Amino acid sequence: MNRYPMFSPQLLVSFVAVAETSSFTRAADRVSLSQSTVSQQVRRLEELLGKALFERTSHEVRLTEEGIKLLGYARRIIALNEEAHDALTGPWRDGVLRLGMPEDFTVPTVDLLAAFKREHPHLRLDVTSGLSPDLHRAYLQEELDLVLVKQRRVHLPRAARPEPLLWLDSQEHPAIEQSPVPLAVFPVNGLYREELCQTLDGLGMRWRVSYSGAGLAAIAAASAAGLGVSLLPASCRLPGHRVLGAAEHLPPVDDFELALFYRDTAPAVALDLAERLIAFCGLSR
Hints:
three-stranded antiparallel sheet; about 40% helix; globular
């Protein structure tokens, strides 16, 4: 016996439409229902939860705190419903394969992924790029089937290779000589940021974040231009970079790796893609 009431996907579709359009009228147009029907569906959802999902005034419709919490779950439930339908009745008779990878691997792998997709025309391949910690978290929550991530050697992957890091600064406009030292880093909880900040703290150096971005290429360009010291993979070194190290009392960072994860229950098509990624990235088991 299920202890929880089941969410109706149709109610969630109307809820998401109102949340994204901030209007019951525009939401009704989007889902091809009358405004009164959309209002009734949202009200039924609120009665089911016993919480108000929207703050309604004569001028606007805004999500409540509970509505904000529900929105992410609603989108995921709708997406899973669509995936299940496609896998069973749609053109994707070979199922859905969800791949996650860091932003800097999306461009180099496009030809590999395109060739793979041509060989599996009845497979729906969904590719997501993002920060490695977010991708690995999504994999653990079973929102992704296969992930290529950069990580400190803590989780045991299927295959991996070392990912050497370099302390990078600008040749023409060195940031290391400033006080506090400006940094070009990923957002909070982003890869390499904690290592960089903790190292400078350990050296008693004052620092500040002068550039924060989610894109590896953008951070590399920022540090080469003089916006801040950064800690990045050696492959990101640009002609305008100066490599820092022992002279600045900065230690080598050699415990990161590029790692591939997939499950024991992965279907043959996922194993096929995994083998191609292992060969392309030079990973070892």
